[in-house]
Amino acid sequence: GIMALFGAPIALEDAPQRAIRSALAIQREMTRFSNRLKSESGTGPIRMRIGIHTGPVVVGTLGNDLRVEFTAVGDTVNLASRMQELAEPGTTYVTEEAFKLTEGLFRFEALGERQVKGKEAPVKAYRVIAPSTRRTRFDVSAERGLTPFVGRERELELLLDGFERARAGRGQAFSIMGEAGVGKSRLLYEFRKAIANEDVTFIEGRCLSYSRGVAYHPVTDLLKSNFDIKEGDEDSQVRDKVTRSLKALGADEA
């Protein structure tokens, strides 16, 4: 078995989300590898079980003079292992704690309470199905309903004035900066809502904390958003979407 830690030794606010996205990517690549192996040698399917739990752990280096390794111990690790044991081959199971921290960002199937070794009370389990269409916590909040928009009327007017100048042929660029939670995403949401009836195409890309090592990630994210490319799309699906979008723009693949 393999144990992966997210949020240790450095704490991460989106550690559960990273863990689930990694699990989905692993399952996707395992399926591709298994299909290729079967077509080349006739070998039976290879499937992996993954279990995810989030909670406090004790981390540090363990070992002796011959071998030292960084690891984590505690009930959180044990429960993640139990989820892995419950999971069917080719699936990922998460606990209720992980589910609550990522609800809305992924689609889950509730499996009810399961009895696991080492726990007196049953544990609720969920099977991860796929990422949802919502990409951020704000997207989830917007779907559930937002509080009234107050205190940013001046900033919204600046954006709307810039939009009018851009529509008149004078290109505009705005930079919105502020501490986390001050309302940057909400301001952009209200701006988009204010011009929703205009003939405008929105192209959105994101710089994610875990994409620092991915070359041109903001650019590829912009393209994926514009071409409606989803996680898990096969190569043929990606090519078809790009081809259709380029034809709609009057361009070719070259």
Summarize the topology.
Elements (H helix, E strand, L loop, with lengths): L14 H27 L8 E3 L5 E6 L4 E6 L1 H12 L5 E4 H7 L3 E9 L8 E9 L5 H8 L8 H15 L16 H11 L22 H11 L7 H14 L6
Parallel strand pairs: 1-4
Antiparallel strand pairs: 2-3, 4-6, 5-6
Helix pairs in contact: 5-6
Give an overview of the whole structure.
With 254 residues, this protein is α+β, with helices and mostly antiparallel strands. The chain is built from 8 helices and 6 strands. α5 crosses α6. The model has no long low-confidence stretch (mean pLDDT 87). It holds the Pfam family AAA_16. It comes from marine sediment metagenome. One of its GO terms (molecular function) is adenylate cyclase activity.
Could you name the key traits of this structure?
A/G_cyclase, 3 domains, two-stranded antiparallel ribbon, alpha+beta, 6 strands, nucleotide-binding, Alpha-Beta Plaits, ATP-binding, Guanylate cyclase domain-containing protein
